[in-house]
Request: fold
Amino acid sequence: MLVAFAVAAAPALASAQLTLTSPVLVDPAQTSGIDAISCTSSSLCLAGTVDGSVLTGNPGSGAWSVTELSGALGSIDGNEAVEGISCPSASLCVAVGDDEIMTMTDPANPSGPWSYATLTNESGGISAVSCGSPTMCVAVDGSGNVITSTDPTGGPGAWTMTDVDGSQALTAVSCPSAGYCVAVDDAGNAVVSTDPTGGASAWTLSSIDGANVIDAVSCAAPGTCVAADQAGNVVAYSAGVWTAANVDGVTAIQSIACPAVTLCVAGDSNGAVLSSANPTASPSTWSVASRGASAILGFACPSPALCVAGDNAGNVITSAAPTGPASSWNSTSVDGGPGIGLDGISCPSAGVCVAGDDEGGILVTDDAVGNPNGSPASWSQLGDVDSGNPISGVSCPSSSLCVAVDGAGNVVASTSPGTASAWQTTDVDPGNNSLDGVSCASTTLCVAVDDAGNVLWSRNPTGGQGAWSSADVDGATSLSGVSCPSSTLCVAVDVNGHVLASSNPSGGAASWSNTTVDTNANSSALTAVACTTTSLCVTADAGGDILTSTNPLGGASTWTVASIPAPGDEGTVEFTSIACASGALCVAGDAAGDSFVSTFPTGGAGSWVQSSEDAYPIESISCPSSSECALADGWGGVLLELGPGVSTGGGSGGSTGTGTSTGTGTGSVGKHKVKKQRLAVTVTVRCRLRRRRCHVVATLTSVETLRRGRLVAIAARKTSARVRRTVILGRVSRTIPAHSHEVITVPLSRRAQRLVRSRRSVPAMLIVVQSKPHRTLVRRRLRLHRLVSPR
Reply:
């Protein structure tokens, strides 16, 4: 993800005035599952995704737009799933997730505002919602509560919570009218009411499906309902009697919609569609149409002549003949979700940036648009120019020269960065090591560093292999970044806290000094460096320290250490990247997605202010001027931060940012997909080291909120000063062969399994850390659901 921001000229400490706009995805690749859908008519449907977005579209035309609720609602985390959505009319849609209820009064307008209500007494996670009318909505949660309102847009006070099912998790609800609702739970029960707002006594609990987990229910009319469970059964309700029948073997049925008493359509965890024109009759009336491998998590049928579903691969599936064969269903990919990680970026001038991604791709901003954060259309994807090798750093000393480096020891350079065919790949590292940073002081001097302690340089960066020379300046220690503000100063950093500096970067090993400057007990691994001039260099480590020097050639005593506190109570800041436009602006990014800004970088810890919070690690930063910076994170989008009076067109004038590009470290995760299984979480992790294996530890944690010693809530990370404790849900260590990737499985501990059994879903944080050199490869918030298939 690319993050760009602009700041107005300001005195020291004015960085706190920065503001933040929504991210824009520019390098999409992965999918985001659709787990809830509702249609106001045959031409308008809204769907909710597991990554916190709402899709708005016309299922007939296939035109869909994506709205990330984290941008519209300040307190909604983009990684929290939209668990349920219900649109009772063209002027109201209600969505739910975690402890939030969100409403929209203009569903046809994708950019229209969503309002939200946070239920402070919600601890089980809201799992579904159904509105029998615009003036009666019912939501259910993982603690056995129904949450009702006759004024859904009235804020938190308009919603009333009632325990109707003890400690069982309610999983779904259907209200065909304002005077009739049915909810189902994870223990085979149904709870029925003819007066949904009438309190606990108005709801009747019945055991209808043994001990099976019921995932879905739909009522075509009061007294006529069909539920579906994880054992392949449908349970039909007619004439006051519930009858269970197996229609799908042992495959979990996860969604269902009944637009009429003569039609029900369901979706299972294998991507099959089940349908019946007489759903309350015998099992033989149900047919199964296999159409794909992606679990169907949400279903809506605005009429018997149109059914719309969403699957966990981000597809919308539609049919005008729902009881027909698989060929009667059409699939459209509408939600690309997070994308390919961007690990290098350089902006030779305001509004013009070049980025490299984890799969050898190059992206450039359109000069005619001149705004790296304007929209995805502002960026051109040149495709794979490096044979799939992960690009780890980019430096553009001018708009007519860009030099990138990759994890396979190649330099990828172009004198026409906007043209894909103009990029040439050259193997320049004699040991075929991973190149982890590059900086070009000018078009006639570029310096790169690798993970084996070598510095490589060229006076003619596009001149081929023979134009590059190398020298071992740091033994076998991995160098993690380099910055060259001029031809008379280059500064590199390594993972053991050393600064290596030279006033003659092309003079060979003897021209480089090696000084220990960082002894941080948490981690002395220096991860990035930025030098604006020969009299100011700034570097950062993985333990929360920022180090500065006004005389980087002067030895250890010239370096000053400032320990930056983590936002809130999130632990230690782990810096991953840094860049400076001048002595008046420096920006650092960390593994948690936070950025820190200073207009007086040598002013100590108090001069650094948290400026923004992204969902993913910030991998690289480039500042072409003192009024514009671009940040790249691991998931392929664009974010803009603005200072007072600065437009999104970027800054003007100032330095070209030469020499401020930084490396991104030696280990990384590429397009990692986190999957949640019955008793484990799996994630694909890539080792970028060329000559040695990566040793990694994957840890799954959750944060419990306690009140008087009693567990009242669970979150993925700490968010306030309440009494909280971090619990480990699973941990595993693995060794990954050099320059390869593996699927790591993190088994859930017994404690984690108990939590998942007792709650419909458990928020968690998955962190994968590499040692030697230290690097956070994955930092991902997710939810553990009690489902058979990946969610």
